[in-house]
Amino acid sequence: MTSLFENYKRAPVAFVRGEGARLFDRDGKDYIDLLAGIATSSLGHGHGGLVEALSAQAAKVLHVSNLFEIPEQEAAALSLVAAATRADSPWAEGEANAPRVFFCNSGAEANEAAIKLARKWGADSGRFEVVSNQNGFHGRTMGALAATGTAAYHQGFQPLPGGFRSVPFNDLDALDAAVGDHTCGVLIEPIQGEAGVILSDDDYLKGAAELCRKRGALLILDEVQTGIGRTGSMFAFQHYGVSPDIVNLAKGLGGGVPVGAVLARKEVALHFQPGSHGTTFGGNPLAMVAVAAVQKALVDEGVLNNAVSAGKKLRAALEDLGRRTSKLRSVRGVGLMLAVELASGDSAADLAARCLEHGVVVHAVRPETIRLLPPLVISESEIDEGVRRLEAAVLAG
Ligand SMILES: *Cc1c(COP(=O)(O)O)cnc(C)c1O
Description:
Blueprint: E1 15-19, E2 22-25, E3 30-33, H1 36-39, H2 48-60, H3 71-85, E4 100-104, H4 107-122, E5 129-133, H5 142-147, H6 151-154, E6 164-167, H7 172-178, E7 183-188, E8 191-192, E9 198-199, H8 202-215, E10 218-222, H9 236-240, E11 246-249, E12 260-264, H10 266-269, H11 285-300, H12 303-325, E13 328-334, E14 337-342, H13 348-357, E15 360-361, E16 363-366, E17 369-372, H14 380-395
Parallel strand pairs: 3-15, 5-6, 5-7, 7-10, 10-11
Antiparallel strand pairs: 1-2, 2-3, 4-12, 8-9, 11-12, 13-14, 14-17, 16-17
Helix pairs in contact: 2-11, 3-11, 12-14, 13-14
Bound molecules: pyridoxal-5'-phosphate (PLP).
């Protein structure tokens, strides 16, 4: 019996508590969490600083609306801008030109806001079209869905809003042919997450940035999954050394608290004026202290550095497992955004189910691909234990 919609296929387990990169189900059984709620609980579970910030804010005030000043929103924005513009970032700008931040509540909403911003920016020059990539994923709202160039997600929901076009990923010629006088923005995931952790070629993002500059379109990076330390850099654009006009964030941004954000170059951001766009919940004090707590942990507590070393360790362990079992074809990814290709014909869904039995959480992102997105705080011993359990699940197949 359920009172819920049936739009999710749920595994038969309920996690009721967590500690670091460990989750516990109703019976007290423990699991190593190699998924972090799909790249979201980046500080793991029960992180002291995050819990304290949320509890303290909950006791003060939860919500006031954007009709009023929200100091916590200013503080969260400042921490994101500082991270985006630090000296070694491709976005390093003087303070006067620093990017601006808009807060919303999810990844789809961040993309939606970015699409609207690009439209508004291009309105006076007849630019309206958004070019994105096939097999990308930008969310389930109508605009984000239209930008999601994957037919399966569109099925049954047509007609979708117009002004969208998608081209094959990592194909600069196709992008070159698609971007023209009507293009307001090129929307790209630096690493396609839902497609199964498909990396941009270095030349692709750089070429896209160059093309946008030449043709006068905005480069919009959907970093909803790659952002906030997932790849070992605060933003994937810093990893790839490209300078975008707009960056969209959500998943890891609040460490599990629902929040999204758009960062935009100042001159672009200022195309939104009072009345252009808004949200009731977006940027509320509770979500904002989560954003600030996550930033503080990533930078001051060395969590970003841990993402780099843990990523290397997990990847090496997976490659080793592949060599020893011949059950894994390949491992790919950056930082703690990893995918494992299974031996031909093996089912990722079956493996993910066996993993739960063996006490480790992974995601079957494609029929023969599992995706690993552990909390960025995962320790060496949690990785060792997680890989031991994964090995047991692999061998049980
Ligand atoms: C998850 C995801 C989204 C959608 O985010 P929601 O919060 O589910 O709306 C958009 N883009 C990318 C790249 C994502 O991974």
